[in-house]
Amino acid sequence: MSSATMDPAGELARALHRRGDPMSASAFLEVLGEVVGGSTAPLTAGERDFLLTHAGLNEQDLSEQGRAATQLGLARERFTLDAAALDGALSTGEVAALLGRAEANVRRSRLVGDLYAPNPGDPAGLRFPRWQFTADGRVVPGLRRILPAFPRDTHPLAIGRFMTQAQEELEGMSPVDWLAGDGPVEPVLALVEDLGYL
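Structure tokens predicted for DNA-binding protein (198 residues):
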């Protein structure tokens, strides 16, 4: 077991201290619970017995400290996934320069679905994953029809992987390469619908 699993409260307190102690560890955990959606309600005796018997958990896992460790782990994994999804992504200004457009035009293209930038509430501003742009600086066509076909809660990393992985149904090309080569949108849409569990 890592020290993070053994002492999540200590790890959190040290991390907050490195940032100038902007809040207490308990206040941070309350905020984290709101963001992650974790329940702060205590487990019923039946829930506790079920988890101990069938889920491979022990008393330490179900303690307040164990639950905090789980929430921290989930938050860390979510952060890692979000960071991976936007690795190499372009800012609004960079997309405007790439496409030779005004920034307002880039934002408008996002709103109508011709460009993809997840997490509009990000304080760092919009970030446009690089996969939607061709090597010669064009936008991959068809995004306005394809992106809404993904289930609403599909993580941007899953969308990026799908769009860049070779597909037999597309003659071994990725959806990005298929669409950039003027392939029709319908086969890509069919694949997205078939993989609706993404």
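The chain has a mean pLDDT of 80.
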